[in-house]
Structure formats: structure tokens, C-alpha cells
């Protein structure tokens, strides 16, 4: 974090307007109230005006039209879409994890693995036979890249990531600590029809199936991941059974997310923390699944679907729908049901009163 | 995957009938539409007939009675129970992770550990003092086998698995990347009665308990696991407090599953992705818990219970029951409640209309 | 577990009364029915009286007032608050993981890292540049302590824990296998307003936002953790964006818990298994979140709030409230709604009958 940046340099990187002492230098970003003399305060809405006064920043990123001089600043950058400005700024100022360049001598790299130019491999990392790692990739400490796995250019793996054998991953892949790509699918079968199979077909009746042992179906498929994908800490993506499990380009998975075997996630999806997607699910493009959303197996979720936090999706969802609840329903239906539920106890009392009243009139049979 | 298999060899392994060129050789399995000349297409229901035509397979596994010649094939295997055939076939064709045989020189193995015959230990794996690993086991890279832990014959650990001290594990154990056996139980107590204790007893009232610090209860028990158990990626099984936490033979846990301290899971259970079982739960045999099911502590779940995805089990469930919902109710009750819920807003309007109508007749008090 | 303890030594450590042969020695604790001659049986309520007879223990911890001689014991300790006694006893008898003292030669420790007195570092652990580890800490095998991270005195890290760069952690920190401190926050933005943003504002309407790629917001903040904090196996705590993500002193997180970027958890909180807290949440002191509870972003949860298992908290919760359900409501409301729901199908039939009856009287419009 010791590097410093000029105000005009930051503004140019963000494609933003700036004013005041454009050659002023800052070394870090800070919340307005915490900012020191060398910090760039982030005050992108008028709500932060007071906090700016409490801090000591000489420069800030401000909302469009802010009167930076009246706010006591020497320089300002103006951000019409604050979070986009945050993106550029944080990329610029990110000090990273301090992973050293080069190949650490304690790494165990199979001689048949092919490393691109300018690849760094952290201490105690294992790279298997036939694995290929693209140019400019940073493989952190304690990672495992399996046999014949392929990582595109510019991969960035934090510590303790594992990539299973034969995984195929595009460019600019990011994996956070403990992410697992290419675990085996959870797929078992009983020699004869099981109670669980009966219950699914009949929606609740196990029939007379007897208890049986589970026999494993191995995963012969791999995981295929597009470009610009990010996988969160301790998330898991299973291999497909015959075909690949797929994550489309531009999709981002948060921490502790599970994606089952054979599932295909489209492009530019967001799967938030602890989302669980079963096997053989087809998820379209630009789908957003809120935290702890669950998806049963063998269904589809259309393009642009948005699920609120905690939603349990038990059947197909057409494109463009916003859903919530357990089981998932349209957001507006969910809100209506929720309101009605809160009135339920009162409703029961009303109906009891009505029954009594109607019975008095002798109207009931 | 370079080995090839004759059609009659595969049929014999599956105990299935075959027809046509029984000496034809295949090297891999494929979906019908993706299959190349050297692949065995998997087309176990008539739904795949068209896709077979689109692919180039010369041999396929087909549904019983299929006219393989009319489908343009040179050889066919017939599968009366398709997923059982998948089990045999995928076991046969599984190329594995390519873990090398033998003990990798970078592994750190305590001299007092006892390794069975034909054991392989991957690079950078740690085996603690007094640990015992059964014959024919494959311990992947970056694993940790704690002090005095016992693994039965034929164990297979993918990369980065940790087995805590004193764990006792039966034969043919499979653990996927990042699985944790023998983490410490989550058990804390306050010096005096806490608000949470009061709220549990009164179903909602914290009483006048004051804020207190939590004091740790250590886990002296271990984890005991039967034969033929599989634990998914990044799943966690806690040690018991005094007695063991137990997973019965034949049970399979998916990814990101949590099993709390003292809990006993019976034989042949399936715990699907992200299931969470609290401490001191008694789970019977042949229980299936759908993805993201949660189970509160100190209850029992009888033999053969099946819980749908997302179920939150808050009280005892008798044997054989199929449940769903939050809180869990019988599947048929859940369906009935769900349908009624969707009619709730309309119901509210109906009751309002009735009230108005009855009030007109002067019938109400 | 070979060390033995005298009855009076244990009683003194627990601050408890004892009776009988105070010099009797025990080596382990056991459930009453399983106890051998050298075990201390744990029989803290009269429910265990029969089991005591079935086991072979000569000494036990009993409920206050128990007639130890009639129970056939030679010595007894009396525990007025059983779980507090369990805490002291299990701490005393915990055999630990057997991690060896000293610095293992296979550990990769940057020369600029500063280790306190009496620190042990397990095999194959990496300690980054500028990291500081407090006196008496035990860092297990396969751990990663990032650059400039600070661990207070008496830290205890099980195997495969990762601590990100610049994390600041107080005294007596405990981290279980696979815990991740300092993963990157899940924070993305689209160049223009997205459908998800529209849907949140309108509670369900995506508007006419077009599909766009997600741009990353990097995490410049770190994780700050107080004293006496414990983080469970495979749990994840993300770095803050600009400010720190904070976990207050005395708070305990169970396994597979997720805490998002910028969130602040207060003092003495319990986050049970698989709890997920989104970003920028403010959680007060002494909050207890039951297993699988989810919390949406940018809300607050007041001091002393208790959430039952599976609760989805979608809006602010005032201090002291006990909540449950999806969405979270007061526990008593949840119970009332739940009872009413089960009566819903019957209610629908009653209202239909009423409609018919009222229609007969000619009362309806």
C-alpha cells in the first residue's frame, strides 16, 4: 500500500471528472470519518457530508455537483455511479495478498505440467501431470491443480484451492481460499426401486420399497468454466457424470456455494453465499440467486431470473421472473401471502364468529 | 482413459444382455448426441432415439427391447434399470485423479504411524503419530491424518481432507476435497442461565437473564464411521463431547454437509448438499435428507424418513414418514397447506364479503 | 490420555464439592453406562441413576444431593450447573490433537515474520512476510498465515486454516480445520442499473434493464477479530471493502458459517452451523443465531436478539427480540401463524360451507 496515486491519475482511470489540486497524492481509500491526511475519502452521496468534516481527508470522491470547496477539500473526483467508481478505485488500490513472484522451491510440480510465461506458484502447491497453466497466472500457496487440468491466462488462485483432474477453465479465473472445482458428483442408486424414488413419484408415498444399500455412480465428466468466472471461499463444484458441469463466462459464485453434477450455469450469473444447486439443473444467463437459495435437481431456471434470499426453487422458473419463498412463487404473490398469513389468526376468529352468527339465523344445513 | 473395453466385457461386468458385434471396443461413455466413433452412447430410454442419430456412436446402452439395428448401431447392451447400469459402467471407466502409487517423498509421516500394504500417500500429506491406514488405501495430496486416527482398508481420500486425532473409520471410506472429520463440537455454556436457555424453555421469552461470556465445552469424544461411507467436499463432522459422533455403514454425505457433536447417523442414509444436523440427534437407518434440510438438536428421526429439500425439522419424526416444509410436516399436509396459502388472499376477500352479507341480514351479534 | 487426576483435584478445578475417596484417580470421563473402572462417570441428573448401575465407574459427577453411596460409588463430585462442570472437566481432560511443540522443519516461514515465545508451527505451514504470531500460539499443520497478519497470544489453529493478509486477530483465537479468515468480499457492479437493483427497489419488478457483465469491487479492508473468538470448520469471513469486517470479543462461530464483507458482529454472539450473514450487517452483542439462519445485507440486529433455526431475517430486528420463520417474525407470532396454517385447509372448507349457507338465506348481494 506504499505506492501513492495522483488525483488526476485516479480520475483518468475511473473516467471521471476531477477538480482542485489534481497533483495531490493519496495512498489509500477510507470512509469519510476515518480518513487521514493521505487518504482519499469515499463520500459519494450527500449523506456523507457531515462525516467528511469529522475526518481529515484533503481529497474525496464526491457525488456529482458537490461543492468540494465548501466541504473543506483541496481536491475532488465526481462519481455519477458510485459503485462503478468503487470498482475502478479498489482495483487500482488493491494491495493483494503479497504472493511472491516465481516458482517457490517447495512446490511439487510434475515435469509434464506446462506453465505459461510469468506464472507464479506459491509454496507447497502441487501441480499434477499434464496440467497447463496460462500466462500471467498466480497460483497461491497450498493449492492443488490436478492432472490434465487446464487454467487459462491470468488465473488467480488464493491459498488452498483445489482443481480436480481434467477441469477446463477459461481466462482470468479467480478462486478464493478452499474453493473446490471437480469434486465427485453425489449420485447413488439402489439395485431395486427405493422408497425415495417412490416418494418423489407419488409426492409422498414410499410404497413398500425395502431398505437397500446405495451403489455409487462415478463421475466421468469434468467441470468446464468459461472466462472471467470467480468462485468463492469453500465453494464446491462437482464433476458431471458423463457430460461436463458448466459455469458460463462472467458468472460469479460467492462463498460456500454448491453446484451439483451435470448442472449448467449460464453467463453473467450471481450465486450468492450458501446457494445450493442440485444436479442436472439448467440455469440461463444473468440469473441472480440470493443467499441460501436452494434449487432442486432436473429443472430449468430461465434467463434473467432473480430469486430473493432463502428461496427454495422446486419447479421450473420462466425467464425474467422475480421469485421468493419456500416453495418459490412470484415476488408479488409471496408478499401477498405473507401479509395474509399475518392476518390468519384474526381470520380464524372472524370465521368462527360468522359460523356462530349464521348458525343463529338457521341458515346452515 | 486410453484403455479400451469390449462390448461383451462391459455387458458381463453389468450383468446385462448384449447383441451385435460383441468384440467392438469402446474407450469412454458419452451422451448420445455427443458420442464419437470410439464412445459407448448412453441411451437408456426411447427419448434418446433421435439424439443417437445425431451422434456417431457405433455402440450404445439401450432400453430393453430397443431395435438396435434400426437405430444404426453395430452393437448394443440392454439395461433394465438404467442407473444401476450407470453405476457399473462408470466404475469401470472412471479414469480417477491420477494420484501416483507409493509414498511421495514430500509427505511428512510420523515414524510411529502404521501403513498397510499397497498404500499410496500423496505429496505434502501429513500422517500423525500412531495413525493407522488400512491396506490398499489411497491418501491424496495435502491430506492430514491426525494422531491415532484409524482408516480401514481401501480408503480413498481426495486432496486436502483432514481427519482429526483418534477418528475411527471403517473400510472403503471415500472423502472428497476439503472434507473435515473430527472438528471440535460447538458447545458453550454461560456461568448462569442465559437468555437463549430461557427462550427455548418458554418458546420465546428470554426472561431477565443478563449478558454473559460463553465458556467452552471441549470435545473429548471422537468420530466413529462405519464401512462404505462417503463424505462430500468441504463437509464437516464434529467430535462428540464424551461419547462418539457416529456415521453408520453405507451412509453417504454430499458437499457442505454439517453433522454436529454426539449425533448418530444410522446405516444407508443419504444427506444431500448443505444439510445441517445439530448436536445430539439420533437418525435411524435409510433416512434421506434433501438438500439444505436442517435438523435441530436433541431429537430423533426414525428409520426410513425422507425429507424434501429445504425442510427444517424441529421435532421428532416417526419412522417411515415423508416430510417437508418449515417447520417440517407430512408431505401431504405440506402440499395442502401450500395450496391453501396461495388461495389465502382470495379467502380474505371472501370472508370480508360474508361478513358484510351476514351483517346485512342482522344475523351477527 | 494417560495422565490421571485425583477426585479432589478435579473438584477443586471445578469449584465443586466432593465426597468419599478424594484420592481416587481417574483418567477419562465417560457416559454412566459406558464407564470403566478408571473413568469418571457423568451423571448430572437423576435420570442417569440406572445407567450408573450398568457401568463400572467407581466415581462420578452427580446432581446436588445425590446419595452417592447408595449408587454404589466410592467417590463423587456434585455439580449444581452441569454444563458449567462439563466445561471445566473437559478442558482439564482434553487430550488435544497431539501437535508437536517447536517449529517443524517443513514449515515455510518468511524471515520477516515475528514469532512470539513458545510458539509451535506444524508441518507444511506457511507464514507470510511481516506476519506476527503471539506468545504460546499453536499453529497446526498445513496452515497459511498471510502477509502482515497479526495473531494475538495463545492462538490455536487446527489444520488447514487460512488467515488472509493483514487480518488482525486478538488473544486466545481458536480456528477449526478449513476456517477461512480474509477471503475477498462478494461485491460486483454493472456499468448501468441492473435488473436486480430495480427488483430490490420495486420489490419485484426488474424494469427494462439490459443484460450486463459484472465488474468486481476489490476488498481493500481486512478482518478484525477481538479476543476469545472461535471460528468453526470451513467457515468463511470476508474482508471489508474499505473498512474492516469485525467479529467482537467472545463471539463463537460454528462450522460452515459465512460472514460477508463490512459486517460487524458484536461481543459474545453465537452463530450456529451454516448461518449466513450478508455484507454490511450490524449485529449487536449477545446475539444468538440458530443453525441455517440467513441475514440479508445492510440491516441491523439489536443486542440480545435470538433467532430460531432456519430463520431468514429480511429486515431490522430490535434489541431483545426472539424471532423465527421466513421471513422472520416474533416467535409467538410464528407459533400462532404455524397453528393457523395447519387449520387452513379446514378453514377453506368452512368458508365454502358458509358461502353456501349465506347464499341460501339470500343474504349475499
Automatic annotation (TrEMBL), chains A, B, C:
Keywords: Acyltransferase, Lipid A biosynthesis, Lipid biosynthesis, Lipid metabolism, Repeat, Transferase. Its EC number is 2.3.1.191. It comes from the Bacteria. GO terms for molecular function: N-acyltransferase activity; UDP-3-O-[(3R)-3-hydroxyacyl]-glucosamine N-acyltransferase activity. GO terms for cellular component: membrane. Signal peptide: none annotated. GO terms for biological process: lipid A biosynthetic process. It is an enzyme of class 2 (transferase). NCBIfam families: lipid_A_lpxD, PRK00892.1. This is UDP-3-O-(3-hydroxymyristoyl)glucosamine N-acyltransferase. The lineage of its organism: Bacteria, Pseudomonadati, Pseudomonadota, Alphaproteobacteria, Rhodobacterales. The gene is lpxD.
